[in-house]
Predict the structure of Peptidase M60 domain-containing protein.
Amino acid sequence: MNILKSGIQKKCVAAALLCASVTSLPLYAETTANWWERWQDNQAFNEALDELGMSYQLLSEDPQKTLTRSADPTDVLYWQKRTMQIYGDADKDIYYIPAIEDHDEARARTGFTGRNPYFNTYYYGEQGDTFTLTTSSQPDDVVCYAGLENQYSGTITTKYQVQLNANHSTQYTMSENGLMLLACWDKSGTYSHMNTLVRVDVTSTTAKKHPLFVFGLNTKEEWKALSQQSTPTGQTLLFDGRSRYVVNNSTAKASQNTNVLQMLREQLSYVMDYDKVNGLDGSSYLHQPLRGLNFGIFNSCCWSQGGAGRIGIGFGNSLPTETSWGHWHEYGHQNQMTWAWNGLTEVTNNIMSLSACRLLRGEVTDKSCHENLYYNNFSWDQQAVGSFLNSGETHQFDTDTDVFRKLMMFAQLKHRGPISSLILAKPTAKPITRVKVNLWLQPINKKLISLWSMPAKQRDVIYVNSLHVGV
């Protein structure tokens, strides 16, 4: 089975080049710290950089700056580098699997639901097929697993999960037909391996290859070919660095002319933006973005399930070139804090949707974000609250059933300025002084709460959470 070798093949600038590692573990037997040099002549990598608004020349002009950016999880280069590390040697049956935080620890740290720890390989096995999987450079407090998936819509689960022998070989037999996936978990309790990649070799197998389209390793032209393939699973697989995706072959075939690089870039970009909205700036352990995956399922719609990053985003009969409110909304659910106000599940996640719209489309009119959205004197600047206060409008926040109107109160606060993000970020963030809180609350609390007729209990939630959020 063709796995688009031309996208995975690398042309090295020397006989044995090195990709930089985000961990002290030796990931590659290479000789340079500038990880991008390995991909200088790779068309897919350069197409991805162009889609991200960068170029190889830009990376090379200031190597130290590029290395610094590549180590920052709030920078897209971090995720692009990680993608190249994970799958850059897959044509040699070598994978570098990130160590993902345990679900309970991640939820306690961030307030989010969990992410998916499993990464696709380029293999599909039938029942009875065997794999010999060998791990190396695996720390004592990291455990790795193999598993299979053969359900491709709804709440997909990874079956027959088998722990791999650390720094040794493991025999895995397919109990059913399905895709082979790999995962590693950080068991340190403090996520000390958040940037660790574990090498897993497919030493031998009787399974077949299965296509996987990877942002940075496959070209636009390769998408045109891959999208028309009938695969062993009947599914087409994609990966953008933060999400893996599954879409049935018929929908993929209808998407031959989709600019799939733009779609994947938009998906990656707004997921990173959601981290920023929630204050996950990488400044401390508590503020680290999650390293696990979202799992975008284009075969069903419209839902978001907590626990393994599963999201139903099948909004049409083909893949979109441009993402839209539905994608932003469902992904937003994966980024809601557990402290969210009762009864506002379908409101507070749209704070993310507004942010995604602004990021991808600019400060556009409300209807450009969603046809049912109206701004109620909202503006994309720090005058949002003032404009509303001067409008004389009043609303019944507690009894109003219109989720878009309720959203406007949060939007007004969010765009008022840095301190307005107090109500949006997680309570575990770094504290600020009561003086700052009072300075923020004093000019707006009385009139704003009055105009929105906000109940005292919800007003108190704003205040309590504001005591614990960095600005």
